[in-house]
């Protein structure tokens, strides 16, 4: 297993514009995509074991869990996840069949459907949160070393970056 400070699959130094064809922002974006892919791969098995659902269904639950109100409309979930509405309809139906979400018509809008977490889903997410958070941390530790972290900081506005001595 590669050490967190020197991920095996990624460059060991922050490249300068003279090092390659891509500007720093695009290299940083590619690093972010690699980290996201590693997290998704690590989470797939944990989510399946802990919740018995697919990774895409898990993403729907996460969106709903992070809402202060009663839920989200299907169209908004599709927008946030960048998924086709037809695929989302199938995923929500699977979640509803598992007793993890409810669907109801939006008052005053015949076509609008609101999706809400059930108490069962809230308990399941709460119970599974530690192993899922650990999976995210492990994936990031394997993927993002100091050089990659520095490259990604380059994407952030200067007031968002950590102090130099951090």
UniProtKB/TrEMBL annotation:
One GO biological process term: response to stress
GO MF terms, alphabetically ordered: DNA-binding transcription factor activity
Residue ranges of every copy of the HTH marR-type domain listed in the record: 25-161
Recorded superkingdom: Bacteria
Pfam family, one: MarR_2
Protein name: HTH marR-type domain-containing protein
Organism, scientific name: Streptomyces avermitilis
Lineage: Bacteria, Bacillati, Actinomycetota, Actinomycetes, Kitasatosporales
């Amino acid at each position: 297993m590669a050490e967190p400070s020197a991920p095996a699959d990624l460059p060991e130094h922050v490249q300068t514009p003279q090092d390659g064809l891509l500007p720093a922002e695009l290299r940083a974006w590619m690093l972010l995509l690699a980290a996201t892919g590693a997290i998704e791969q690590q989470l797939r098995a944990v989510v399946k074991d802990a919740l018995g659902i697919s990774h895409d269904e898990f993403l729907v639950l996460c969106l709903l869990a992070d809402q202060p109100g009663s839920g989200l409309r299907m169209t908004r979930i599709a927008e946030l996840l960048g998924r086709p509405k037809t695929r989302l309809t199938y995923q929500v139906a699977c979640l509803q069949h598992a007793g993890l979400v409810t669907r109801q018509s939006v008052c005053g809008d015949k076509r609008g459907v609101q999706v809400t977490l059930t108490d069962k889903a809230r308990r399941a997410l709460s119970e599974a949160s530690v192993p899922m958070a650990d999976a995210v941390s492990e994936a990031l530790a394997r993927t993002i070393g100091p050089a990659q972290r520095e490259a990604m900081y380059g994407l952030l506005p200067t007031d968002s970056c950590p102090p130099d001595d951090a």
